[in-house]
Design goal:
The chain is mainly β. It has one helix at 2-19, and strands at 23-31, 34-42, 45-53, 56-64, 67-75, 78-86, 89-97, 100-108, 111-119, 122-130, 133-141, 144-152, 155-163, 166-174, 177-185, 188-196, 199-207, 210-218, 221-229, 232-240, 243-251, 254-262, 265-273, 276-284, 287-295, 298-306, 309-317, 320-328, 331-337. It is built from one helix and 29 strands. The strands form two sheets. A 15-stranded parallel beta sheet has the order 1-3-5-7-9-11-13-15-17-19-21-23-25-27-29, with no helix packed on it. The protein has a 14-stranded parallel beta sheet with strand order 2-4-6-8-10-12-14-16-18-20-22-24-26-28, with no helix packed on it. Belongs to the CsgA/CsgB family.
């Protein structure tokens, strides 16, 4: 009986030891690098490599099968990874000086990848739920990225090249997708999506361009392309399967698109300086096309109802157009040039 008892104790201790089979590998080369690793659970894995001076890494993992890989090369880079749950994964690569990354993941099989090359770039990733994915790539000086995702299978991709670019992505729901690409100096992008399968694509090249995208609902789509300086775009969509495309090439062009309902579509194209477009659509399957080429042209389109269509074409200097349509299947064509 005593023999059986001690065998049982040995088996329990062996099982407990296996249950705590966490693994951590830390390699440090340089001066005054610091690493902290805390793992609670089983089969969590951590890899930390530091080369340089005053780099700091903190890893906290609670749960099972979580994975963290942090690589730091340079001066005074800092990384903080906190994962709680099952099979979450984080990779952080920092090359340069004073880069800062924070990753917080709670749930099942969330994945985060952060790459920072340069000086004083900052990234904050927060994911809660299951199968969310975030990819942040920063090259340059003082770029800033903030990604917050709650739900299932949301995906965010942020690419920043240059200096002082800023991106904020917030997604709540299932299967939302955001892609932000910023190249240049001082560009700003904000994407907020709540619902199911909304999709946003923002591309900014130049100086001081600003974009805001807000989508609430199911299957809404927004595409924003900005090339130049100080262009501004705001897209707000509420409902199901609304679609907005904004293209801006030049300086200080502004576009506002508001759509609520089902399957409304808007296309805005601006080429030149200080052109202004506003599109407001409410209802079902309304469509608007605004093309502006020149300087100081203004367009306002208001449509409510179903199946209304508007086309505004402006080229030259200082044209002004206002279109108001209420009802079903109304059509309008405006052509202005000089």
């Amino acid at each position: 009986m005593k023999k059986v008892f001690f065998c049982a104790i040995a088996l329990m201790l062996g099982t407990a030891a296996f249950a705590q089979f966490n693994q951590s590998f830390v390699n440090q080369t340089g001066i005054l690098n610091g690493s902290s690793v805390n793992q609670d659970g089983f089969l969590n894995f951590n890899f930390t490599d530091q080369l340089g001076i005053l780099n700091a890494s903190n890893v906290e993992q609670d749960g099972a099968l979580n994975f963290s890989d942090t690589d730091q090369i340079g001066l005074a880079n800092s990384s903080d990874v906190d994962q709680d749950g099952l099979a979450n994964g984080s990779t952080v690569l920092q090359v340069g000086a004073f880069n800062a990354s924070t990753v917080t993941q709670l749930g099942i099989a969330n994945g985060s990848s952060v790459t920072q090359l340069g000086i004083a770039n900052t990234s904050d990733v927060d994911q809660t739920g299951a199968f969310n994915a975030s990819d942040v790539d920063q090259l340059g000086i003082a770029n800033d990225s903030d990604v917050d995702q709650i739900g299932i299978a949301n995906d965010s991709d942020v690419d920043q090249t240059g200096a002082f670019n800023s991106s904020t992505v917030g997604q709540l729901g299932i299967g939302n997708q955001s892609d932000v690409t910023q190249t240049g100096l001082g560009n700003n992008s904000t994407v907020t999506q709540i619902g199911i399968a909304n999709n946003s694509d923002v591309d900014q090249t130049g100086l001081g361009n600003g974009s805001s995208v807000l989508q609430l609902g199911i299957g809404n789509q927004s595409d924003v392309d900005q090339i130049g300086a100080f262009n501004g775009s705001a897209v707000n969509q509420l409902g199901i399967a609304n679609n907005s495309t904004v293209g801006q090439l030049g300086i200080a062009n502004t576009s506002l698109v508001n759509q609520a309902g089902i399957a409304n579509g808007s296309i805005v194209g601006q080429l030149g300086i200080a052109n202004d477009s506003e599109v407001n659509q409410l209802g079902l399957a309304n469509g608007s096309l605004v093309l502006q080429a020149g300087v100081l042209n203004t367009s306002l389109v208001n449509q409510a109802g179903a199946l209304n269509g508007s086309i505004v074409l402006q080229s030259g200097l200082g044209h002004n157009s206002v279109v108001n349509q209420l009802g079903v299947a109304n059509g309008s064509l405006v052509v202005q040039s000089n």
